[in-house]
Amino acid sequence: MKNLVILGSTGSIGKSTLEVVDNHPGSFKIIALTAHSNAELLIQQYNKYKPDYICITDAKKAVLLKDSLKNESVKILIGEDELLDLTSISSVDMVVNAIVGSAGLRASLQTIKNNKDLALANKESLVAGGPLFASLIEKHQCKILPIDSEHSAIWQALRAGEANEVKKIIITASGGPFRTFSKEQLESVTLADALNHPTWNMGRKITIDSATLANKGLEVIEAVNLFHVSIDKVGVVVHPQSIIHSLVEYIDSSMIAQLSNPDMKLPISYALFWPQRVESSFGELNLAELGQMTFEKPDYEKFPALKIAFEVALAGGTAPAVFNAANEEAVDAFINGEIGFNIITDIIKNCVDNLEVISKPDLDDILSLDQKARTYAQQMIGKVIC
Fold it and tell me: Which of 131, 171, 238, 276 has its CA at a distance of 20 to 30 angstroms from the CA of residue 304?
């Protein structure tokens, strides 16, 4: 039995992780569950799984937890610092980081420092903190197990050859809800339009990122840091059906791909049970019923966030952290109705173009540039509102 901590258990990935746990009774014990602000769902999850610990990072919601669970023996933790303590529990085998955004960076780093395997859905950790991870992994001899469908697919395809045999990593993109829109049409899209993803059911932030293709840009940067390849060995192809989740091209020109119906529970299951595969119907695919698959080049002019991501991946250092922070602030402003859809990428570009790049940063450098990017982005948003 594997002992799990699930960070962000009330979000989309966290809930899917618990579905995988439910599907394999006796395989996992839940040691801790955490949420940012959804105390009501966290209470329901506690009542079902009875973890030893629960944590909520929004202190305003702690009273509800304590009142609702006052007769329970559970240890209730509050705030990000106490959340980090969960990664040091001696009985824990694996930490699932399903926190949304750069808030997950410290949790990922602390998990590795505590010699725990990290099942990682929080791509922002590897985007912003990429320069810090390689040496930590080597020092602590633990594993990062990707939960992103694309990086799980790459991880599986890389088992077909040696590192020096890899010619190209090819990440697939659905193209999002606006794949066929003109640049003029993009100027008037609404939040409801952007949240209507054609193939995936995800949280609001990642769904908006998919609409701008910033999410694909984040995945490009993540692939560079996770698989230790140069940016010239990473490409993107648009595949609207979302059946091929990514490919690896080898030096003999063969391509190895992973296929399934879009279901996040499949890559989650692969990470939780690694190195074994287990019987499951998640993502089950009938090729005859599928009929056909199509592919096309991404439109970098219509979706410039993807082009910017390649540029910051090449720049390295703190540039990806700036890209990520600016995107988070811009997406939040779009969700709140403060800016239009196309302004998201304008804000990212301005932050990337105008903030310094520290080539060999430590954590303080990364956090500093993250905050500078947020401040700069908020100033731009304020000008748009005015």
Answer: 131
> Smallest Cα–Cα separation from 107: which of 203, 161, 32, 201?
32
Whether residue 335 sits in one domain with residue 209: no
How far apart are the C-alpha atoms of 354 and 118, rounded to whole Å? Answer: 34
Q: pTM to 2 decimals?
A: 0.93
For residue 200, pLDDT beyond 80: no
Tell me which of 197 and 139 has the higher pLDDT.
Answer: 139
Sheet holding 94-97, edge to edge: 75-78, 53-56, 28-35, 2-7, 94-97, 117-120, 144-146
Residue-range definition of the domain harbouring residue 18:
2-146
Whether the per-residue pLDDT at 170 is higher than 80: the answer is: yes
Label the pairing between strands 117-120 and 94-97: parallel
Three-state SS sequence of the chain: CEEEEEECCCCHHHHHHHHHHHHCCCCEEEEEEEECCCHHHHHHHHHHHCCCEEEECCHHHHHHHHHHCCCCCCEEEECHHHHHHHHHCCCCCEEEECCCCHHHHHHHHHHHHCCCEEEECCHHHHHHCHHHHHHHHHHHCCCEEECCHHHHHHHHHHHHCCHHHEEEEEEEECCCCCCCCCHHHHCCCCHHHHCCCCCCCCCHHHHHHHHHCHHHHHHHHHHHHHHCCCHHHEEEEECCCCCEEEEEEECCCCEEEEECCCCCHHHHHHHHHCCCCCCCCCCCCCHHHHCCCCCECCCCCCCHHHHHHHHHHHHCCCHHHHHHHHHHHHHHHHHCCCCCCCHHHHHHHHHHHHCCCCCCCCHHHHHHHHHHHHHHHHHHHHHHHC
Q: Indicate if 355 and 242 belong to the same structural domain.
A: no
**Measured CA angle at 99 (ends 298, 210), to 5 deg:** 15
pLDDT at 202: 74
Q: How many domains does the chain have?
A: 3
Whether 386 shows a pLDDT value over 70: the answer reads no
Give the tens place of pLDDT for each residue, 296-327.
Answer: 999 999 999 999 999 999 999 999 999 999 99
Does the residue 127 lie in any domain? Answer: yes
Tell whether 158 and 180 lie within a shared domain.
yes
